[in-house]
Amino acid sequence: MYALELQNVTKRIKEQEIISNLSFELKYGEILGFLGPNGAGKTTTIRMITGLMKVTDGDIIVAGKSIQKEWRPSISQIGAIIETPSLYPYMTGRQNLRYFSRMYTEVDENRINDVVIRLEIDKVLDQKVKNYSLGMKQRLGIAVALLHQPQILILDEPTNGLDPAGIKEIRNYLKYLAHQENIAILVSSHLLAEVELMCDRVIIIQNGKRVFIQDLKENRMKQQQKVKIKGDPIQVTNALHLYDPQLKISQADDGVLITRAVDEIPEIIYHLAQERIRIYEVYVVSKSLEEKFLEVVGDKDDGR
């Protein structure tokens, strides 16, 4: 069973179709990047998932329950932060957590302490939130979203406005929650380089339709990889042809490009060393998520 499943979801507003037959799944223990240009329908989709907007056609299944037929039980499995967490700045972190815990009957002081320790915010818990850094506010926001022990966490721009250290902190916490606590996390963000570091899979939508989906983890482990070998192109090429006369080699300004199985690369490097070829660098060349994104959606937003 998936943590979250969108089944041919369509949303129309005043005869305009905002989301068209959208389907995808979110697994337990994974971080799924939810991407698209401005106006693609990401916010509308998140609003439907979190129960803030009704689905026109299709269905959303949350932890096995239909959001159409079992709204309250399904929504109770979701925790969400949309951009900046809604916190009370003149209250302490502890007071905020106690305040929001009143929304749920099953949250007690022990649960608050458990979340606080898990997110390592205990040292600042009795300070006023107005004195928190952005990263600490995000962590407190995640703590609030996790109070009722949801199985799914929805985050819209979770690293918005953070410095590199804060971004890394949030990334590590989200990976911990997904991979160690088995929480399913959906992340919408415009920071594509960060999404590539954080997420296990990505889905791209455009004009309300799914146009691309990829398993980033599987792509990283792919057997055949394009590899760049930096060194004298002629010397490297001649040595590689001695290793394998059938090897296809592309010339580059400062070396060559080959496509080979990952586990064969050390053997190739050893052969070049035996041939006394000076090698300055060897690395895998792959398209970045940003390059793939621009290939799929184009260089400009659609303006919707």
Topology:
Blueprint: E1 4-13, E2 16-26, E3 31-35, H1 42-49, E4 57-62, E5 65-66, H2 71-75, E6 78-82, H3 93-101, H4 109-118, H5 134-146, E7 152-156, H6 164-179, E8 184-188, H7 192-198, E9 201-206, E10 209-215, H8 216-220, E11 224-231, H9 233-243, E12 250-252, E13 255-261, H10 265-274, E14 279-285, H11 289-297
Parallel strand pairs: 3-8, 3-9, 6-7, 7-8
Antiparallel strand pairs: 1-2, 1-4, 4-5, 9-10, 11-13, 11-14, 12-13
Family: Belongs to the ABC transporter superfamily.
Domain ABC transporter: 4-232
Organism: Thermoflavimicrobium daqui
Q: What would you say this structure looks like, in words?
A:
The radius of gyration is 24 Å and the shape is globular. The mean pLDDT is 89. 31% of the residues are buried. The protein has helices at 42-49, 71-75, 93-101, 109-118, 134-146, 164-179, 192-198, 216-220, 233-243, 265-274, 289-297; strands at 4-13, 16-26, 31-35, 57-62, 65-66, 78-82, 152-156, 184-188, 201-206, 209-215, 224-231, 250-252, 255-261, 279-285. The chain folds into 2 domains: 2-215, P-loop containing nucleotide triphosphate hydrolases (Rossmann fold, 3-Layer(aba) Sandwich); 220-284, Alpha-Beta Plaits. Helix 5 runs parallel beside helix 6 (164-179). It is α/β, with parallel strands linked by helices and 304 residues long.
Round the Cα radius of gyration to an integer and report it. Answer: 24 Å
Give the % helix.
25-40%
Unreliable segments of 5+ consecutive residues: none
CATH architecture of the largest domain: 3-Layer(aba) Sandwich
